[in-house]
Design goal:
Length: about 150
């Protein structure tokens, strides 16, 4: 199976990041600009439905910090994810991959000692995901290999 890094999509533009978040936050659902704007408003932010639609269409590329914060509220992620050259992108992607694995039952739970209110540090979360991918790869190779030998 591919490693988590190979499956991570390229998220350079605001449009790519928002499309990715729509797919990951609302899997299998068609989300309108009005729905998202209402969601942001319910969470204490402000974003017009037409502005959100323009972001999805790639017409808006450099919104204000307030708009980025509204996107963060709507998707429930750190608003800095949407900034250009964001250092948060990998952390958010790793967190979403972790949640998807929890949803499908691939991960049943995590216990941590000495964690603060922020939970697992992003580096530890990425490490845990890589361990899981490695274990799945070894199991798949053992299941399909000759006499238990991994396939090459």
């Amino acid at each position: 199976m591919d490693s988590a890094e190979e499956r991570t999509p390229e998220l350079r533009t605001l449009q790519q990041k928002v499309e990715y978040m729509v797919e990951e936050t609302f899997p299998g659902q068609k989300i309108s600009g009005r729905f998202f704007a209402d969601l942001v408003r319910e969470r204490g932010g402000s974003l017009s439905h037409s502005y959100f639609s323009n972001i999805l269409a790639g017409k808006v590329t450099q919104p204000s910090e307030d708009i980025l914060k509204a996107l963060g509220l709507g998707f429930g992620v750190d608003w800095r994810f949407f900034k250009e050259e964001s250092e948060v992108v990998d952390d958010v992607v790793a967190g979403l991959q972790f949640l998807a694995m929890r949803r499908t039952g691939e991960i049943s739970g995590v216990a941590g000692r000495g964690l603060d209110e922020d939970g697992l540090p992003p580096e530890l979360l990425q490490f845990a995901l890589s361990l899981l991918q490695d274990a799945k790869g070894r199991q798949g190779a053992a299941d399909g290999g000759v006499h238990g030998e991994p396939e090459q």
